[in-house]
């Protein structure tokens, strides 16, 4: 039987990491295990109280049924309290909050809810590849906007305003930015909200890294009047060490939440109740939780800086988030060449910046999701491979 995939998949390949992990798996069968510094999947566990809550609710006989599509009130209230405490944003848990099965699904839900053929959507280059993929899946046309180190990796809104924006319905923003670790200023956030209002664009802010190595978490929704034009995604994957649990959230005006539910409720059902209750617990932890987490990420980041020095890469020491973004030496054509060389010679995997768009070609990205000992070993392997050449 000849069966063709749908047109919408024509330019959509299996996710880069999904393919790369298979390659690493194959390498692992032929010798020393590869040290994977590619993915931002926290290796540290969630707080013990989170696990206890999961156990407690999972052991009840009444918690195994389907859950409602909007998430349980204790989770929505915990999300609203978290936003009030840390971001100074006031949300009504009954109107402005939608728990998600990870924020990645939210990217697709948003694109499928608002975009169709003929529409355009702006996305960052370099940026998280899921934005461009979700725009493509919706049938709309993705329009990359370039980010550059010289501009603090912030979009040039004046230059964008000079383009024809008549078809642009939606713009993806992500600060702290992945992969560059750049942060946005409040002034920029205000300008972005004004830009969205002026051009009638829905600003979709993806905010999973705001607690990692930052002094102060920031939400785009904290800007006055933002609720009119902004929706925000957030996640427990990074800040609560719960990547595999798949808990994210969408925050925005009541109408926006109701619109996204029209798509999402036809795709999936509510999360397992014990997961929702444990997530609520995670969000209620005090500031000490984030301080402790950041203490270990700070120490790891120092190790990564040393590893990057060994590779003769340059980097901004002020960057935040779960990775270090670094410029490669000029004698490599691009980050893929350096990444491949390290993988083959040292059995260490580091992400080539080019997978985040052409703006990342001259960069690599190193994850902080490895212990200091593993990071030391990765550096030793690289040094040894160089001496043995
Ligand atoms: C910028 C960005 N957004 C969203 C996600 C997805 O996070 P989640 O685990 O909540 O789906 C990631 C994960 O790596 C990310 O880097």
TrEMBL record:
EC number, as in UniProt: 2.6.1.-
Cofactor requirements of the protein: pyridoxal 5'-phosphate
Domain Aminotransferase class I/classII large, residue spans: 33-382
CDD domains assigned to the protein according to its UniProt record, in alphabetical order: AAT_like
Superkingdom classification of source: Bacteria
Keywords assigned: Aminotransferase, Transferase
One Pfam family of this chain: Aminotran_1_2
GO MF annotation, one: transaminase activity
Family of this protein: Belongs to the class-I pyridoxal-phosphate-dependent aminotransferase family.
Database matches in PANTHER family: AMINO ACID AMINOTRANSFERASE, L-GLUTAMINE--4-(METHYLSULFANYL)-2-OXOBUTANOATE AMINOTRANSFERASE
Protein name: Aminotransferase
Organism: Parapedobacter pyrenivorans
């Amino acid at each position: 039987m000849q069966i063709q995939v749908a047109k919408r998949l024509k330019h959509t390949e299996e996710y880069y990491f999904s393919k790369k992990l298979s390659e690493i798996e194959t390498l692992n069968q032929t010798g020393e295990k590869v040290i994977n510094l590619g993915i931002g999947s926290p290796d540290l566990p969630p707080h013990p109280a989170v696990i206890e809550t999961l156990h407690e609710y999972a052991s009840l006989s009444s918690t195994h049924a389907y859950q409602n599509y909007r998430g349980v009130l204790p989770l929505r209230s915990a999300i609203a309290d978290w936003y009030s405490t840390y971001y100074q944003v006031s949300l009504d848990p009954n109107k402005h909050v939608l728990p998600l099965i990870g924020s990645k699904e939210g990217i697709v839900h948003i694109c499928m809810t608002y975009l169709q053929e003929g529409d355009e959507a702006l996305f960052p280059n370099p940026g998280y590849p899921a934005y461009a993929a979700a725009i493509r899946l919706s049938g709309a046309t993705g329009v990359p906007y370039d980010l550059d180190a010289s501009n603090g990796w912030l979009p040039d809104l004046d230059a964008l305003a000079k383009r024809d924006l008549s078809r642009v319905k939606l713009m993806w923003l992500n600060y702290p930015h992945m992969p560059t670790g750049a942060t946005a200023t409040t002034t920029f956030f205000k300008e972005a909200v004004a830009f969205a209002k002026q051009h009638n664009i829905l600003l979709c802010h993806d905010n999973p890294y705001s607690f990692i190595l930052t002094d102060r978490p920031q939400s785009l929704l904290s800007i006055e009047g933002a609720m009119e034009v902004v929706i925000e995604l957030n996640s427990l994957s990074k800040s609560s060490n719960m990547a595999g649990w798949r808990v994210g959230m969408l925050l925005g005006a009541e109408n926006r939440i109701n619109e996204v539910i029209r798509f999402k409720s036809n795709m999936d059902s509510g999360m397992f109740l014990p997961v929702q209750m444990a997530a609520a617990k995670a969000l209620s932890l005090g500031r000490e939780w984030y301080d402790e987490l950041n203490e270990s990420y700070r120490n790891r980041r120092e190790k990564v800086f040393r590893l990057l020095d060994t590779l003769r890469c340059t980097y901004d020491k002020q960057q935040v988030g779960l990775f270090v973004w670094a410029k490669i030496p000029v004698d490599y054509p691009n980050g893929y060449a350096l990444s491949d060389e390290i993988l083959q010679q040292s059995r260490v995997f580091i992400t080539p910046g080019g997978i985040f768009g052409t703006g990342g070609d001259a960069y690599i990205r190193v994850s902080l999701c490895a212990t200091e000992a593993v990071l030391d070993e990765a550096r030793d392997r690289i040094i040894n491979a160089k001496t043995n050449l």
